[in-house]
Amino acid sequence: MSSLALKSAVADENGSSSSDDYVALGLYEARGERRREPRVLSLLSALLERSVRKNERMVETSRYKDRATLFHGVSAPSLTIHQYVVRIFKYSRCSPSCFVLAQVYIDRFIRCTALILTSLTVHRLLIAAVVVAAKFIDDSFFNNAYYARVGGVSTAELNKLEMKLLFGLDFRLHVTVDTFDDYCSTLRRDGVAVTGGFGDRRIGTELH
Fold first, then answer.
1. Do residues 77 and 118 touch, judged by C-beta distance below 8 A?
2. What is the CATH number of the domain that holds 190?
């Protein structure tokens, strides 16, 4: 099922409140229109950045040692989380809904593993989660060689990241309508709280 069909089905089942969240997050895309940066990108980025800051403070002030995993980079990428998310959206051509599913997958993976979301792990986890989401709900998608170039990793590395994520999720990629709605509501509410409302300014941003 395409993400557009998914959103339509959810809207029909749940009524106007869900539809309001989809519109606010920019999940609807009209065919033929020039792509704009949907608000979900800035709100998701803000929530991830908050988690990274919180986790890095925890690691610094405790005796906990962050164990290196496949998702750890040697150093933090030069791109901010928001810049990276926008890059993925712009070049992968995936639907905005993929970023909602990506957050679901990231949360599930973190709960099932010992991974800590930090500046060394968030970018690799993001590209893997968006790729998995695109393959699961979008009607069309690219191969991993292309996604690897978008994400700034090698094809071999992305293949490993994708498989690690899938096995960590036990290949349970289905997201219920209620869960999808809950994440949309949380993104809309908590994302605005984190950004202080500035996420609204990104609604009409065109991608060049």
1. no
2. 1.10.472.10
